[in-house]
Each structure stands twice: as C-alpha cells, then as structure tokens.
C-alpha cells in the first residue's frame, strides 16, 4: 500500500512540478483554447498552464477522500481503499499524459492540434480505454459501499447481487475498454468521440439492466 501511495502522490504533483520548471522556457503567449475543429481560438498567458496541474492536485485529494470514505464502509480489510487508490493512480496517469501533450503544443505554439501526428481524441479515449481495462480487472475485488463500483439500487440489494454485479461490470469494462482502444486507433476527431460515447452508453445500459435482473432473481 505504501508503494501505491508513493506512486499516487508522485503522479499527483508531477504535472505541477514539471509546469513550474517549464514556465521558464515557455513563450509569453500560448494557445489557451481550441475549438471543436482543433483550431486555436484564444491565446493566453503562459501562466495559464498551471490550471491543469492544480486541477490534477485537487482531483488527487478528491480520490483520497473517496478512498477514506469507502474504507469506513468496509467491515474488514482495505479492498475498497486499495481500489480507490489504484483508480486514482490510473486517472492521474491520464492527467500526466494530457499535461505533457498540451505542454508540447504550448512550446511549439501549435495553432491546429490536427497537425500533431497523434490526434487529441485518439490520445484521450485511447487512454480511457486502457484505464477501463485496468479498472475492470480490479472491480470484482470491491466490497459493498456507496462510493465506488457498479452501484445501482439493484446491485446493492444484498451481497450476492453486489458480488455478481461487480464481476459482470468488470468483464464489461474490460471488453468495452478493448473496443474503445481499437476504435481510437482506427478513427479520429468527432468519429472517435461519438464512437466512444456510444460504446460507454451501451455499457451503462447493459450493466444497469443486468443488476435489475439480478435483483429480481435474488
């Protein structure tokens, strides 16, 4: 657990440290906003690069709060806390990659993100798919709580429905994650966005319906 926390805090503060160092070398004006076509629509001060790292730190503390709260709802062990920490690590890793991506755009003063070989949507949703695969593998370890996991009125009916729901949800997350990674590799721009939204929507419907059928059975 200590090693996981070291990784967690490292990923939590690394973007802030990197950006503080990078500020000395960034141009005074950087691309501050892009439209839906990946074209820059506003230039801003280089100090605006601090916004995302600060959000990363705040998100880290939010996940730590969730870990603490979920652990209180667990009678024995610390499975829920571990899952929250791992979830936080995966999410913070995504934040770190996005920080690096936009720092690159800032250094190069890129006016059109589409000129970068790796499309921003491909990067974002490809990482999302990978995160879903990781989370799908740890979901079955969750014990009943009101914070994390596949939580519906029906999945929380009793221990049986909870365990079966997390197992099914874990499988659906892995399958969905693999599909999203493939889609992110084959599509770009809006196509990548809409395909990903569609896949996630189908997963939510299927998972929710499964918990409903479980509750009726048990």
Describe the protein.
The longest helix has 30 residues, at 79-108. Strand 1 (29-34) and strand 2 (40-45) form a beta hairpin. The chain has helices at 2-22, 51-72, 79-108, 120-138, 159-186, 189-217, and strands at 29-34, 40-45. It starts with a helix and ends with a helix. It has 218 residues and is mainly α. Helix 3 (79-108) packs antiparallel against helix 4 (120-138). The radius of gyration is 20 Å and the shape is globular. It has a two-stranded antiparallel ribbon.
What is the count of β-strands?
2
* Element pattern in H and E: HEEHHHHH
| Termini separation | 35 Å
Compute the number of helices.
Answer: 6
Strand order of the largest sheet: 1-2
Oligomer: single chain
List the helices and strands and how they pair.
Blueprint: H1 2-22, E1 29-34, E2 40-45, H2 51-72, H3 79-108, H4 120-138, H5 159-186, H6 189-217
Helix pairs in contact: 1-2, 1-3, 2-3, 3-4, 4-5, 4-6, 5-6
